[in-house]
Amino acid sequence: MSSPVSQESTRRRLTQQQAETVTRLTDAAVEVLNDEGFDGLTVRTVAKLAGVAPATAYTYFSSKSHLVAEVFWRRLSAGVGEPDLTTTPTERVAQVLREVSMVVAGEGQLGGAVTMALLGTDPDVEHLRLRIGGFIRRRLAEALEVEPENPGPLLDALEMIYAGGLVHAGMGHMTYEQTSERLVAAAHLLMEK
C-alpha cells in the first residue's frame, strides 16, 4: 500500500501507476548511486535500470539532483515520526535529530549525493529543499511545543546545528551515526542551559 508521500511528486499529484513508476525510479537511483556515485548518476541510466523510457523519467524528474532530492524527501518523511509527547522536550528534540540524521545512514553514497543535490539550483530541488526544511522545522517545533512560525531562538539554533551536521556528514567528515551522536549531544547542551 502506498503512503501519501508516494502519491505526490514535486510536479503533480500521481495516479497509482505513476506513483509506482516514480518508486521504481527512486529505488533505481539508489542502486546507481551505490554503483556509480553522484557523478556517474544520470536520469537516463536510472530510467534504464527501472525499465522506464528516459522521456517518461524526465516527466517526473528535471535532473539527477531533483531525483536524489526526491529520494531524500521520501526517506525523511517516512523515517522521522512525530515526537513522543510523553517524554521531555530534550528527549523529543534528541529523537527528531537522531531520526533526521539517520535517514541515509548505511546507504552508501546516498548521503553525499543528497548534500550535493540539495545545494543545487534546479527549481524542483529548491521546492523540495523548502519542503524538507519545513518538515524538519515542524518536527522540531512539535518537540519543543512551539509554533513553527514563531519559534524563538532555540529552534533557530537547533536548525543550524542539524543543517551543519548533515552537511558535515554528507562531505564525509564523519559517519551519520557519529553525526547523530554529536547532534544529540549539542541539543542537550543547548536545552540544558
From TrEMBL:
DNA-binding region as annotated in the record: 42-61
Domain HTH tetR-type: 19-79
Keywords: DNA-binding, Transcription, Transcription regulation
Protein name: TetR/AcrR family transcriptional regulator
Superkingdom: Bacteria
InterPro entries: DNA-bd_HTH_TetR-type_CS, Homeodomain-like_sf, HTH-type_TetR-like_transc_reg, HTH_TetR
Pfam family, one: TetR_N
